Amino acid sequence: MEYLSLENLINRVGLILILAFLLSRLGMFRKLVSKRKISLLDKLALALIFGSFGIIGTYTGIHIQGAIANSRVIGVFVGGLLGGPFVGILSGIIAGGHRYLIDIGGFTALACAVSTISEGAMAGFLKKRFDHSKHRFTFALMAGFAAEVLQMVIILLMAKPYGDALELVEIIGIPMILANGLGIAVFIAMVDSVLHGMEKEASYQAQLALKIANRTMFFRDGFNGETAMKTAEIIKEMTNVEAVAFTDRERIIAHVGEGEDHHKPGIGLMTELTRKALHSDSFTIADSKQDIGCDHKGCKLRSAIIVPIKQESRVIGALKLYKAEERSITMVETELALGLAQLFSTQLELSRIDQQRELLAKSELKALQAQINPHFLFNAINTIVSYTRTQPDEARKLLVHLGDFFRSNLQEPSDKVPLTKEIEHIVSYVEIEKARHGDKLKINYEILPEVECEIPPLLLQPLVENAIKHGVLHRLEGGNVTISARNNNQGTIIEVVDNGVGIPEDTLDRLLNDCGPRDCIGLRNVHDRLINLYGKDYGLQITSREDEGTRVRMFIPNGQEVYAQ
Length: 565
Description:
Helix content is about 60%, strand content about 15%. By secondary structure, the protein is of the alpha+beta class. Helix 4 runs parallel beside helix 6. The model is unreliable at about 560-565 (pLDDT under 50).
């Protein structure tokens, strides 16, 4: 009886594994095995690759007693574990069909062909369990042992005469089971190492992109030459590219690094690839100086990746990363550029939202200014007229207050005003109301000296007006309104409190909603402005009891600090 050395067979398996290692360095293979969802074309490519490994395993086998002790199963089985039944069966047909065709009618030709296809199918149907296994090396090792046992069983069942088949299995069985099972496990370990390396690389790129994005928040101020230049300088500093550029849809707006002496801002787009990226909404790669399109003799830029930058789903420009060698844009630069472009697009979208929020706040303020009741003006004029004969000095003071009041209401909206200025506006309004209603109306100011906050303009007047009109003046004897402000660690608490008739509970529940009373639109406007400026937790807080009064409270935070109720 002939003897098959396990060492000799492992040497053949080692050759397959060396080829597998070289294959794992190829970008195409790395892309294929890293995909979670692979297309039919991808599956065909994987089947060809692993089927070819099976054929190599046949040719590197050891001839023994009219058969071949081989490592054919390694490629086929790994293909099935990675690609599923389609890849496993097709790679089995490729490798098994080849085995049959090179030895038609041979002692084990048909049995080996059938066993190869069966092992590929077995691996394919084990894929789901393999994918969910926490110990993939051990799973592949045990499954590989089982597959080779299956092959020995098929040889015993199909190869004739049975005595020769039994003798063959006794010679090749244990060596092939051990060597090929180990080969399958090591091949899987190589693939897992590739995937792990790609994950680490992707993680590094994601972290780098985030670090760059954290230092380049300039696009929140818009996409222009100044913000693009600052951003390009930081990207150049933090990466290994030779140059970084930004374009709008027509010209270069920033260029930092190699070639900045002639790739100057303001120059029109130099390459058709950039125009293609801007119009096709997808990234492009330039692999040579000709692709870049620079006709400057001393230009050292030889390759680039060009990625569109969007705002509101519309391409407004491009990010370009350059390198000094041809065809040197790797997956590293590609993923980095795509990640950065996405982050910059997000910054621009946030900038647009900020602008819309600012416009909304201004429009709300204009709406509030437009809500000044004409009756207030007519009543104020009639009151002043009545004072002109009996108390001319008081009439003069009231005219000054009326002028100040309307000057504040009609001035161009601003972001913030000092609280003291807002109180001056309230004083002008209150003095006119007190002149009309006399002793029925008393106003108290409890503004602590240390309070120096700034607030959006016309924030308090609607609250004071509501307290007077709907609170104290509904009592025959009138009442008091207290305006207070005090600081705490997070900001300033401002309250308007009256001892008027209060608000019914059913009305209070609807007061700040669109379905609330129509004459309380000023309160809702102030509530919405606060939320737009500071967040949903910073709206008005209103408490009230019928016949006891109402308390309206707002909180103005220091910067972006959160007020803890």
